[in-house]
Amino acid sequence: MTERLIRLMRLINLIQSKPGILARELADRCDTTERTIYRDLEALSAMNIPISNLGHGKGYAFISNFSMYPLDWTEEEAVSFSMLPSVLEPIKTLIPEGFESAYEKVMGTHRKEKARRVDIVQHVADIIQLGTPAYRKDSSSYLFDIIQAALSQKTIRAVYYSQYRDGESAREIDPYFLIPRDYRFYVIGYCHKANDIRTFRISRFRSVEVLEQTFDKGEFNLKQYMKNTWSIERGRELIRFKVRFHSDAARYVKEEEMFLKPTMTMQRDGSLLFEVTVNHDREFLNWLSQYGPDAEILEPKSYREVMREKLVRWKTLYDV
What we know:
A hairpin with a 2-residue loop joins strand 4 and strand 5 (about 185-190). By secondary structure, the chain is an alpha+beta fold. It has helices at about 1-15, 25-30, 35-45, 75-80, 85-90, 100-125, 145-150, 220-225, 245-255, 280-290, 300-320, and strands at about 50-55, 60, 155-160, 165-180, 185-190, 195-200, 205-215, 240-245, 265, 270-280, 295-300. It has a five-stranded antiparallel sheet, covered by helices on one side. Strands 9-10-8-11 form a four-stranded antiparallel sheet. Helix 2 packs across helix 3 (about 35-45) and helix 6 (about 100-125) crosses helix 7 (about 145-150). It has three domains: about 1-70, Winged helix-like DNA-binding domain superfamily/Winged helix DNA-binding domain (Arc Repressor Mutant, subunit A), CATH 1.10.10.10; about 145-220, Roll (SH3 type barrels); about 240-320, 2-Layer Sandwich (Alpha-Beta Plaits), CATH 3.30.70. It is elongated, with a radius of gyration of 29 Å. The chain contains eleven helices and eleven strands.
């Protein structure tokens, strides 16, 4: 079994390094018969390794982008493989020459790839410059730790400041996704304290510890979760806004990068009819306010009154 395992790994490497390699060449390189090679190829196919016969005289190659490297191991797989020498210790004298060096090369590749990924994540975290809330005295960021946890699907233990409650709390969070919104980064994941999916602003983390405990996203769908959300704040109702933008603002609105896909219809006078359905009004109204009198809410009519009252309050401030 050990000899065959080595040969199967060698077959994968040979086909990866030389697509189109023939069965007879595989047999020569593995010092065995073509009949054995055919049996080995059938075994690899049964293990869902996508090796395909390219046709008579054209040899074998991997389908799609399959590759053995980089070694995309989970931590459990890496630990299991690292224990292989101790498992084989009782039959060490029966193991063919070359197994030890082959094993060391595989483990060396894994360690190198793991270190490379850590370096890449660190570089990405260093490039992304996050702002710091005005009330914070320190500028510490836990972006690197959170990215690492999200990539390796590990739970984090964190102390998080909640603006709504104006207090800190200890939580364990499964970080599913990191998303940028309005110059900020947010984590969307499962909160063990709330037993539900929650959204966390990275600048509000006070401490982060990556645990060995792993998680599975299950059937969580980010697109469905964020459906009809204008930016990050989610609500429970659906509000259909119809807004008319003046021609002076129309071209700028069309260039806005949005998370939702509105319906935009140019009018004969150069104005823009903008229609979108959102599940919360606050962030949308804040965005709309930047356009001042160049944006007029047509529907719902109740929001025309909301905007009118806001304008009256603004005017009162400057009437003094």
